[in-house]
Structure formats: structure tokens, C-alpha cells
UniProtKB/TrEMBL annotation, chain A:
Record-level GO BP terms: tetrahydrofolate metabolic process
GO molecular function: sarcosine oxidase activity
This protein's name: Sarcosine oxidase subunit delta
Top-tier EC class: oxidoreductase
E.C. numbers: 1.5.3.1
Keywords: Oxidoreductase
TrEMBL record, chain B:
Domain spans labelled SoxA A3: 501-584
Source organism phylogeny: Bacteria, Pseudomonadati, Pseudomonadota, Alphaproteobacteria, Hyphomicrobiales
Keywords: Oxidoreductase
Annotated Aminomethyltransferase C-terminal domain residues: 893-979
Protein name as catalogued: Sarcosine oxidase subunit alpha
Residue ranges constituting the GCVT N-terminal domain according to the UniProt record: 600-872
Protein family membership: Belongs to the GcvT family.
Domain FAD/NAD(P)-binding: 170-300
Protein source organism: Sinorhizobium medicae
Cited InterPro entries: 2Fe-2S-bd_N, FAD/NAD-bd_sf, FAD/NAD-binding_dom, GcvT/YgfZ/DmdA, GcvT/YgfZ_C, GcvT_C, GCVT_N, Sarcosine_oxidase_asu
Keyword Signal assigned: no
Length: 92, 987
């Protein structure tokens, strides 16, 4: 029916504006072994409690976000732009 | 005929009569009546037949929990079945029909079910109709469904409008009874943004039938004055006729506002219902309490009513329940009703109290029978006497109305919608809302608080606490002074009653009675969730508002445990039924989904295009000419003409994405599996995008218009998906790359001009030199058109296999440019063509679409193995593409298929079987992905994905469609059927 996601760019917005990709995992390097890649592409944890996911604010700012959600209560504990913290770091 | 209107009591408008009909019979009520109160005022006590046994039923409650008085309102597209007569406001001309009876309400043949009732107990579906099994679907189920029923929905379209809306506030107060009004007033005066809603038509809740005085005013007057003050506050939104039906994540409440359900002819400019989503910082549930029925024989007979409902009909609507009434009570509230009835001049024959002593000193005229119960009633369509059981004696007392006061259950549904479970309170003998709900507090009757002063006080205190929680300061509020308040009372629940003979109902709407619960427990379905499903108690449209607690109490008694141990079933939205209209909102008819029209839509329409829906798009499928008798004829002409002269096709719906930035080339190099880093400026290249698992995701051409500027096309279906994917890559995977993305699909009108005469025609409108030398195959650049009047992008790319171009111009110029091209080409035989022809041309050339890129193929499967870069360090899908299974033998590979006899044909989706193999799915070796009739080959041609197909060219196979019973001998072949050397591309 409803729930609100605190988008860091747009404020609290209804979840219908977002698309969920799934677990927020970091992509293995090009030289990672096949086991790493298999984990990244196929294996997912199914925790009861806090879970970090990539959400796309498709009908809003069109930014990819990392949403920390409780899988039990659906409470959103944190929501940040997926680029935050990584752009400046990786630039070095 | 026993209930009647009293001369001057209540809040109904005596000088405004309202005419309505019930089962076609004209009746009259008063302004301010509900349908239920008007029926009672007309002496109509029998108003419906029950679901299973077709027992005569009357009006049990005065509110949302009503299980019996369900009627169909209106006619035609405005037919509203299962409307609770207790909630329907009366309006002039209202038409109501009783339900589940045939031929009439008074004489109902379905009542025979009552005689059959020994066979219709709990679980009868599973027991009685087990054998013979084939008869279940054909015979038993249809008969049972016909006999057991509620109202019938109309087949006519709903003519009315609905809408959806969001609202935001600091404090949402649910329920405008004493608690809710006090809370809203407190928060409103403190300046908070408040929303107060109530399902009724008048604010006040129980104040509307309360006899106490508040601050020297009648309770109803206090409610009116308080509402007036609230309505005058700009920071308060006061919503009547609005039911909060669910509590959702993020403290969002769902509510439905019945904007025009109380009028005869809705105003077309307003919706009839509005669905609200209310996001609030804090919420207060002040929904009050529901009175608990008592489970004695015949407790469902017309004339038996909840005590609080009887008091509401008396004091609010001025309706007396009968000439001689009795009250069966387990607590002190029954005496308040006795006092009010006697004050109104209605005889109370007896008060039957289950307790040895009452907490109040009763001085009325009624006979007081203590330590006694009502165990049964006399009368079918109306009661004529009650059987009172005391000690080992039973006596009969003649009455025509009976009130039952079994205690109160807090209305806590909303508090349990987010997973919290109700908690049994031995002290309050009721289920209470779970504690520490984040953002929601419960107050007043909903928190099992009794007494008016206590409720008002709790409303004020809870509002103050809520506002403090959001950082708002509350000025002190004086507690209103209450005179004549009922003292707080306690009650011992009376689950089972001795001496019961007739059916004693627990769930009135689903016809679940005492014995059903006993049977469920005996047969091993004593768990509350099992008992619910075995007996269907609590599963009717009222969701067990009156029945759940009695069912739990009786299960507890049968199992010899406390109700706490039995627990409750799960509360889920919706609290009361919500119409599909409200949930649909404006998304009906033309607005069901958006329609996407290409900028060349009107141009295509002008030329007689037949359109086909692909996703949201309307695409021109073919352009029939007069005299052509079938689509095949038109498509064949278009196909031949493209290969002979030239054709013009709208390809605007392809996804278009502009990429810019100093790292745009590097970015493309990583998202495509083939190389893009060194694509020269002015060149287009076909690209394959993989998914991270190595399978093909999408394809298209990308052109380098400048060093740091690219123009990408995607397939129509994946345009949005590719954009999301690229944004993910740019923002999440490689934020260090300098690249910007813009979706420009709607900015460009794009046309394919294909055929041997394409260049001649195009050169007439393009200013730049487009000769083969100046603009060879795969050239791409911005060009000047019409002597500099317009600029566009020209790409020499070909899906048809002909000398072909795609030209993109600003969307608004699309139609003019298409017209100009047709004009320029009219001496060269140019004709428009649609997606059908586009498809034939591409199958002739073995070009793939998403029919072939179906999520199960890797580049090598489609013959693109050599495109995959072996030298790139990384690209999406590179790692997983290395898996041995993706290069193993037996993979589905793209092949062509032709029938051995050119007169034969087959269809897409058919299976490929080895020659001589039996036609079974086990022998399936692949399937036809695309097929068409090719006028150049002179037969059906097809593309297929077949195991090891690339090494099987020339093999005879069988094309089999089990669905259509078709088998066609065919031969596998190279997937390019026309111009395999691509000579026509390079002229």
C-alpha cells in the first residue's frame, strides 16, 4: 500500500517511485577468481534484519541509492547515494 | 412490526422526511437517518437472510461491524452489493434490495438449508462432497455457491470517478469520538498539523448517543462545538465519512473517503470515493470498542440487538427497538440502556444479569433477574419471548426486543497491521494492542478505558505526549467537566451459556455456531488458525469484528486454557471492505496505462497505417492500399518494394541515449562486449551488451558523433532497462569515469530509408554529400537538411540488408521530414512500410531481435562469438562468459529453417525434432523463434535456436506444434536467406 524511502536528494518519497536491484554488493575486480564471481552473480544472503540494497530512484532523481532496510520490519535505517564516498576515493 | 419512531428524541431532522424503497416498497425516513435506523423506524426488523442457513436476520449493530444487515444499494453501474445498512446514510430516492433470498425475503426457499443443517456443519465441504470426486466441480460446488451467497456485483461499468491523494501531518487522529476530539483539539490548539478522520457522517462517536453532560452541555452539543472549533483551525484537516483501513510501513495510513456515497446523483466533477495515503509523524488510534455478543440459542433472530446499538438507535435516531424489551447483560452497561429506555417511555420487561450483584444501584421498573442467563428465544422472523435460565429453572418472558451486553473489545485492528500481536489482558478481560508501537498510540475505548471523563483525559494526555515526541510544545488543556458519567466497570466474560438448544451463533455473517467450534476442537483443529479455516469463523466481509473474541474464548474453554494461550489470528488490512474503484483510482479506461505515440504517429495514420500495440507503443504495422484483401498482400508489396525501390519506416521508438564526457568511450568499452574505445568519430558500430552472467542483454548501434559524444540506440522493449543499467554502471560501478547520460528517445523522430534508391531520395533533402565515397557503410554524422533549414543525424546502417540509412530529426519536425521524403521519392517508387515488413526483411537477413536474444543465449550462440573482445581487461559479463558450459557442445545455436515443400508453413514457437523422432517434448531440440513468409525465397522462412544448430545446416528435421497439431518436414540452413555476401549494403 505504501511506504516511504528517505531519498538523500528528494526527501521521503513513496516506494513506487523506486526500482530495487537487490543486495548492495561490490563488483569483483576483473582478475577475481571464478568463485568470487559466482558469489557476486548468484549467491545471496537472506538475513533476518538489516540488509543493504541498491535502489534506483527511477521516477525521481534517477540516482542509485544504497538503502539499509530491516527485512523483518521494513524500517529504513539509512539511505545514501551509492556514489557518495566512492567517487573522491577512487579518483586518487 | 415492533420497532418504531419515538416522537421527539434524537439528532434526526423531524421536518425533513426522506423517501426510499426497500425491496421495491416505498418507505419514509428522516434526514440524519441511516438506512438501518430508517428501516427500524418503519418497523422493518427482518432485513436479510444468512449466508448458509438462510436464517431470517435483523439489524444487530449500529456501526461498521454489522454482519447481518447487508443490502444492495442502487442499480445499473452504480449497484453496490453488501452495503452495511448501518453505515449507509439515507438519501432521497435511495433504492435498497435485500440479498441471498429467493423468491422473496419473507418467503425464502433457501431456508430449507436450515433443515439440512445437520449435514452443513463445519468441514462439510470436505466430508459430504468427497465422493464421487468428479462431481465436485460440475455439480456440488456450483450448487453450494449458488445457495450460499451475498449480493451480486453488476456487470455494467461503474460510471463514477475515483481518485487518490496523499496527505501529511504531525498527528493523525483516527476516530472522532470523545477521545479523538479531545486529542485533536489539544493538538490543533498547539498549532500542530492535525488530521482527524472518522468513518461516520457526524463527528462525536459515542457522544451522539451519550446522556452525560460535558461542561454543562449535552454530549452531542459538546461534540458539535468541538468540531466547529476544529474546522475553524487552518492547521486541522477534518475528514468525515473516512475510514482508516490500514497501517503501513513508514507510518503511512491508508484511508478511504466516501465523498459522494450519501447522495442520489453524484456531481461528476467530484470523485465518489477518494483513497488517501496519510504520512504522519505520530498517530493516535481512538477507534473505540466493539460490544461483544452473547452466544445463546437464537441470538441471531430479528429483534436481538447489541445493547450499545439499541442505545444509539434510541438516543441518536429516536427509534424504539420494540414495545417490550429485555436486556441480557454481563456488566453495568446494561443498566444505562435500561435507564435510557425507560426515560424514553419504552417498557423494559426484564434485566437478566449473569452476575450475583451489579455495580450500580438500579431503581427502574424492570424485573431484575440476577445470576441468570438468556438461553434461547421464541420466534423466527421476529422474537416473541426469551427463555431465561436460572439455577435449574427456565422461564419464558414475552418481549419483542432483546439487548445483549457481553462487555467490550477494543478495536485494535490497525495497531496490529504491522506484525504486532494483540495481548490478552486478564484484568480487562479483553485483547489489547501490543505495546511500544513505533509512531502509534492507542487511547480511550480502543485501550479498554471506560468512562467518558477518562477517555477525554486520555485523549488530551496522549496528544500532548505525541506532540512532545515531535518537538512541539502544548499549552495546558483543562479537562472538561463531566456530569452523569458512567463509572468505570469491569466484566467477567461469559463465553458459554447453559441450557442452549437452538443454534447459538458466533460468526453471524458466515453462519458459524457454537457446535462448529466444539467440532473443530474435537476433530483436532483447536489451533486458532486451524479453527478459523475449518469453521470459517472470522472469514466473512466483517472479518470477525463481533465473532473473533467469542470464538477464541470458546476454543479456550473447550481446550481448558486461557484465551492468552489460544491467541488471535492475524489482523490484516483492510479494516472494512474497500471498493475496487477506490483502489483503482483514476487508472481506469483510457487511463489504465499510458499510450506512447511516436512523433510520426499522425504521419503514419495519414497514410492509412494499421497500428499494433508493442508495450505502451502504438507502432505502424503495415500500410494497406485499396484493393488489398489481406495484411499478407500489403506486407508482400511493401517487402518487394523495399528491395526493388525504397521504403520509409518509422523507427522512432528505438531507445536513444546520448553519452558525453571525457571517459564516454571507455565507459562504452566496458558496457559492450565488443570494442568501442577506438571507434572513429563519424562511425557507427553494432554493439552487444551482456548481463553480468554472460548472457546477451541487449543490442543496438552506437555512433561517435564527436570525440566525447556518442549516440546509442537500444531495442524498443529494453530502452528503459538499458538506461537504468547504464546509470547503475556509471554511478555505482565506475563513478570515477567522467560520463553523462541522457535519455533522448522522445527528442528525435527517426526514420529508416531503405532500398536501392534510398541514396537518390535522401540526397534531395540532405545538403552534405552522401555518396558511397563520402558517406560509406556505417558512417554517422550530423547533417544539414533543406539548405540549412534543419539539422539532423544521419546513420548509414541497415536492418533490412539494403542500402539504407536512418535519419533522426527533432521530434516536432518528424512529420514534415517524412512527408518531404515521400515527396522526394515519389518518382522513385518510395512507399511507407511497417514493422511487419521490417520483420520479414530482417528474418531474410538473419538479423536477431529479442525473439532470439531471449536471455538464454551468449554471443557465440547467435554467431557473434568473434565480436567478443579477447583483449579488453574488463567488460560487463566478461568473467562469467568464460564458464565452460557456455562454450560446451549442445548449446542452442541460431539456424535458418525452411519447409521442404515450399507450400507448407509453420509458426513461431514450434518445436524442432530430429527427423523420425517421436513427437514428444522429451525429443525437443529447439524451437522456432521467428518466422515469416518471404516473397524472395518463395516460402515460409524461419530462425530457430537448435542444439548444435551451426553444424547441422542441411539436416532434415520435423517442425512440430503439439498445441496446433501441426507437423511440417523442414530443413535447417544458414540463417541468412538473402544476399549472404552483403553486396547490397555497400553500393
Amino acid at each position: 500500500m505504501a511506504s516511504l524511502v528517505p531519498c538523500p536528494n528528494c526527501g521521503r518519497r513513496p516506494k513506487e517511485e523506486f526500482t530495487i536491484k537487490g543486495a548492495a554488493l561490490s563488483r569483483p575486480g576483473a582478475d577475481a577468481d571464478s568463485e568470487n564471481w559466482f558469489d557476486y552473480v548468484y549467491l545471496r544472503d537472506n538475513p533476518r534484519g538489516a540488509y543493504e540494497e541498491y535502489w534506483h530512484h527511477t521516477s525521481g532523481c534517477r540516482r542509485w541509492l544504497v538503502v539499509m532496510r530491516d527485512t523483518l520490519t521494513h524500517e529504513v535505517a539509512a539511505c545514501r547515494d551509492a556514489t557518495d564516498g566512492s567517487r573522491s576515493e577512487r579518483r586518487k | 412490526m415492533s420497532s418504531y419512531r419515538l416522537p421527539n428524541l434524537g439528532l434526526v431532522s423531524r421536518d425533513t422526511p426522506v423517501s426510499f424503497t426497500f425491496d421495491g416498497k416505498p418507505m419514509q425516513g428522516l434526514q440524519g437517518d441511516t438506512l438501518a435506523s430508517a428501516l427500524l423506524a418503519n418497523g422493518r426488523m427482518l432485513v436479510g437472510r444468512s449466508f448458509k442457513y438462510h436464517r431470517p436476520r435483523g439489524i444487530l449493530t449500529a456501526g461498521a461491524a454489522e454482519p447481518n444487515a447487508l443490502v444492495t444499494i442502487g442499480h445499473g453501474g452504480r449497484t453496490e452489493p453488501n452495503t452495511r445498512a448501518t453505515m449507509q446514510e439515507l438519501y432521497e430516492g435511495l433504492e435498497a434490495q435485500s440479498q441471498n433470498r429467493w423468491p422473496s425475503l419473507d418467503f425464502d426457499l433457501g431456508a430449507l438449508n436450515g433443515i439440512l443443517s445437520p449435514f452443513l456443519g463445519a468441514g462439510f465441504y470436505y466430508k459430504t462432497f468427497m465422493w464421487p470426486a468428479p462431481l465436485w466441480e460440475k455439480l456440488y460446488e456450483p450448487i453450494i455457491r449458488k445457495a450460499a451467497g451475498l449480493g451480486k456485483a453488476s456487470y455494467e461499468a461503474d460510471p463514477d470517478a475515483y481518485e487518490k491523494s496523499w496527505a501529511h501531518c504531525d498527528l493523525l487522529v483516527i476516530g472522532a469520538g470523545p477521545t479523538g476530539l479531545a486529542a485533536a483539539l489539544t493538538a490543533g490548539r498547539a498549532g500542530a498539523r492535525v488530521i482527524l478522520l472518522d468513518e461516520g457522517s457526524l463527528p462525536g462517536g459515542s457522544l451522539l448517543f451519550e446522556t452525560a453532560m460535558i461542561d454543562g452541555k449535552a454530549a452531542a452539543q459538546f461534540a458539535r462545538d468541538t468540531s466547529d472549533e476544529l474546522r475553524s483551525m487552518p492547521n486541522v484537516r477534518f475528514m468525515m465519512r473516512t475510514t482508516a483501513f490500514g497501517w503501513y510501513d513508514g507510518n503511512v495510513f491508508g484511508a478511504v473517503e466516501r465523498v459522494q456515497k450519501h447522495v442520489r446523483e453524484p456531481v461528476p466533477s467530484l470523485p465518489v470515493e477518494r483513497l488517501w495515503r496519510i504520512a504522519t509523524k505520530k498517530a493516535l488510534l481512538a477507534s473505540g470498542a466493539e460490544e461483544r455478543p452473547l452466544v445463546f440459542g437464537g441470538n441471531d433472530r430479528p429483534g436481538v440487538m447489541m445493547a450499545s446499538a439499541m442505545r444509539a438507535y434510541l438516543n441518536r435516531y429516536g427509534v424504539a427497538p420494540g414495545r417490550a424489551t429485555a436486556i441480557f447483560t454481563t456488566n453495568d452497561s446494561g443498566y444505562t440502556l435500561a435507564r435510557d429506555l425507560e426515560a424514553a417511555g419504552v417498557d423494559v420487561a426484564a434485566i437478566v444479569d449473569s452476575r450475583p450483584a451489579a455495580g450500580v444501584d438500579y431503581r427502574g421498573k424492570a424485573r431484575l433477574i440476577r445470576e441468570a442467563v438468556v438461553c434461547g428465544v421464541t420466534g423466527r422472523k421476529a422474537i416473541s419471548a426469551i427463555e431465561v435460565h436460572r439455577g435449574d429453572r427456565t422461564e419464558s418472558i414475552a418481549v419483542d426486543a432483546l439487548a445483549m451486553a457481553g462487555g467490550f473489545d477494543p478495536i485494535i485492528h490497525l495497531a496490529c497491521h504491522r506484525g504486532g500481536r494483540p495481548v490478552w489482558s486478564a484484568e480487562k478481560t479483553a485483547f489489547l494492542a501490543p505495546g511500544s508501537l513505533n509512531g502509534l498510540e492507542v487511547a480511550g475505548g480502543a485501550a479498554a478505558t471506560s468512562g467518558l471523563a477518562a477517555c477525554l483525559g486520555e485523549g488530551i494526555a496522549q496528544a500532548q505526549a505525541a506532540l512532545e515526541g515531535v518537538g512541539l510544545r502544548c499549552p495546558p488543556m483543562d479537562l472538561p467537566k463531566v456530569e452523569g458519567d458512567d463509572a468505570a466497570y469491569s466484566s467477567n466474560p461469559l463465553w458459554s451459556i447453559p441450557g442452549v438448544k437452538d443454534k447459538a451463533f458466533i460468526d453471524f455473517q458466515n453462519d458459524v455456531h457454537l457446535k462448529d467450534i466444539g467440532l473443530a476442537v474435537r476433530e483436532g483443529y483447536g489451533h486458532v488458525e486451524l479453527a478459523k479455516r475449518y469453521t470459517t469463523t472470522g472469514m466473512a466481509t466483517d472479518q470477525g469484528k463481533l465473532s473473533n473474541v467469542n470464538a477464541i474464548g470458546l476454543i479456550a474453554k473447550a481446550r481448558g486454557v486461557s484465551p492468552a494461550e489460544v491467541g488471535t489470528t492475524t489482523f490484516r488490512p483492510f479494516y472494512t471492505p474497500v471498493s475496487f474503484g477506490a483502489l483503482t483510482g483514476a487508472h481506469a479506461g483510457h487511463h489504465f496505462q499510458p499510450v506512447r505515440k511516436s512523433p510520426l504517429h499522425d504521419w503514419a495514420k495519414k497514410h492509412g497505417a494499421v497500428f499494433v500495440e508493442t508495450g505502451l507503443w502504438y507502432r505502424s504495422a503495415w500500410f494497406p492500399k485499396s484493393g488489398e484483401r489481406s495484411w499478407r498482400e500489403s506486407v508482400e508489396r511493401e517487402v518487394l518494394n523495399v528491395r526493388k525501390n525504397a521504403g520509409l519506416c518509422d523507427v522512432s521508438m528505438l531507445g536513444k541515449i546520448e553519452l558525453s564526457g571525457s571517459d564516454a568511450a571507455e565507459f562504452l568499452n566496458r558496457v559492450y562486449c565488443n570494442a568501442f574505445l577506438k571507434l572513429p568519430v563519424g562511425k557507427a558500430r553494432y554493439g552487444l551488451m551482456l548481463r553480468e552472467d554472460g548472457f546477451i542483454y541487449d543490442d543496438g548501434t552506437t555512433s561517435r558523433l564527436a570525440e566525447n559524444r556518442f549516440f546509442m540506440t537500444t531495442t524498443t522493449a529494453y530502452a528503459a532497462g538499458v538506461m537504468n543499467h547504464l546509470e547503475f554502471c556509471a554511478q555505482v560501478l565506475w563513478p570515477e569515469l567522467d560520463v553523462r547520460l541522457a535519455s533522448v528517445t522522445d527528442q528525435w523522430a527517426q526514420m529508416a530509408v531503405a532500398g536501392p534508391k534510398a541514396r537518390m531520395i535522401l540526397q534531395k533533402i540532405v545538403d552534405d554529400d552522401i555518396s558511397d565515397a563520402a558517406f560509406p557503410f556505417l558512417a554517422a554524422k550530423e547533417v544539414s537538411l533543406f539548405g540549412g533549414a534543419l539539422h539532423g543525424c544521419l546513420f548509414r546502417i541497415s536492418f533490412s540488408g539494403e542500402l539504407a540509412y536512418e535519419i533522426a530529426v527533432p521530434a516536432g519536425y518528424g512529420e514534415s521530414v517524412a512527408d518531404a521524403l515521400l515527396d522526394a521519392g515519389k518518382d522513385h517508387g518510395i512507399m511507407p512500410y511497417g514493422v511487419e515488413t521490417l520483420s520479414v526483411l530482417r528474418i531474410e537477413k538473419g538479423h536477431v531481435t529479442h525473439n532470439e536474444i531471449n536471455g538464454t543465449v551468449v554471443p557465440a550462440d547467435l554467431g557473434f562469438g568473434k565480436m567478443v573482445s579477447a583483449t579488453k581487461l574488463d567488460f560487463i559479463g566478461k568473467a562469467m562468459l568464460q564458464r565452460e558450459g557456455l562454450a560446451a557442445s549442445g548449446r542452442p545455436q541460431l539456424v535458418g529453417v525452411v519447409p521442404i515443400d515450399p507450400k507448407h508453413s509453420f509458426r513461431s514457437g514450434s518445436h524442432i525434432l530430429a527427423k523420425g523422432a517421436e513427437a514428444t517434448l522429451e525429443n525437443d531440440e529447439g524451437y522456432v523463434t521467428s518466422s515469416a513468409y518471404s516473397p524472395h525465397v518463395g516460402s515460409t522462412i524461419a530462425l530457430a535456436l537448435v542444439h548444435n544448430g551451426q553444424s547441422r545446416h542441411g539436416e532434415e528435421v520435423l517442425v512440430w506444434s503439439g498445441l496446433h497439431g501441426e507437423s511440417t518436414p523442414a530443413r535447417l540452413c544458414h540463417p541468412v536467406f538473402f544476399d549472404p555476401q552483403n553486396e547490397r549494403l555497400h553500393v
